[in-house]
Amino acid sequence: MWGGQDNKPYPIYGKVFMSFKPRDGFYLTNTAKAYILDEIIASKNILSIIPEIVDPEYTFLEIITSAKYDTRKTLQTDSELGAKIKAVIINYNDNTLTKFGTRFNYSKFTTVIDDTDTAINGNLTKIMVKKNLVPTLNTNLTYTVDYQNAIRPGSFYSKNTFKAINDPVINFPTSNLYLDDDSNGNIRVYNISLAGEKVYLKNDVGTIDYGTGIVLLTLMVSSSSKLDNSIDLVMEPLEYDVLSERNNILTILENDISVAMRAE
To answer: What is the DSSP string of 17-40?
Structure first.
């Protein structure tokens, strides 16, 4: 819960916002929201303050880890040790993250990986942060994506492709398109040539404030390669201790975990 004066990217006075994570799934149903507002909150509400329930926002952490291990201390294979590490990461997510106001502590997390098995001698782990944007199709809109953490310049990109058939500016509108940033705060859109090279079609489809982690993106998306037509937007945080606030929830999906083993 937070007051409208603390809302971001801009304050909304006279409101109080609240967010709930259901036990199963990602979001409350509209019926559940109506029940909370009408049956629970209405009798306690101060008339001058308007309550509003907003869905939680999910920030997905991608884990890319390479762990080294001593072959003299184990009979397990690379795949077996890797599976154990993956299970430990999933357990860490379930018990430490997936709650409001949590913080991803990089040092503690890498220690958890090291403690998976006595044969493991250390790990090199990279963290990427992913937000899922669901655009309104065939409408030119500006979207705000708030990572709530500083972004490393030059690390922003779209993970899946999209199309912009009706965009009047982008050439080759029916091709598969991607996004990245130019390290100077500008977001660019490009496709891939037959030679496998990036061909930039537009250099100013959005901006990034690297310090605040706020991305403003103006697009007219017609479809994407995902079934829900969403676009996964990924960046590397400047600091690997990732923070969350307000209605934001940190979580790690199983498909976003990559484990490589190095024998010594």
So the answer is: EE----SSSSS--HHHHHHIIIII
